[in-house]
Amino acid sequence: MTLSGPMGLVRTFLDSKLTPLLITGTLLLGLFAILQLPREEEP
User: Fold this and answer.
1) How far apart are CA 22 and CA 16, in angstroms?
2) Are 2 and 8 in contact (CB under 8 A)?
3) CB within 8 Å of 19: residues ≥ 6 apart
4) HEC profile of 3-36
5) How far is Cα 2 from Cα 15, in angstroms, rounded to an integer?
6) Chain centroid to CA 40: how far?
7) Angle at 39 (CA atoms; ends 25, 26), nearest 5 degrees
8) According to the model, what pLDDT value does residue 3 have?
9) Residue 4 has what pLDDT?
10) pTM for the structure as a whole
11) pLDDT in tens, 1-43
12) Cβ 35 vs Cβ 27: under 8 Å
């Protein structure tokens, strides 16, 4: 039995071994973006 729609997508991500890699990559990209933001000397 194959699930279609949102539940099929959820099941695919829950069963995938790539999900932790995607989460880690997203967090690292976010951290990099925060570190690259310019800072004001006197806000």
Assistant:
1) 10
2) yes
3) 13
4) CCCHHHHHHHHHHCCCHHHHHHHHHHHHHHHHHH
5) 14
6) 29
7) 10
8) 64
9) 74
10) 0.64
11) 556 788 888 888 888 889 999 999 999 999 999 999 988 887 7
12) no
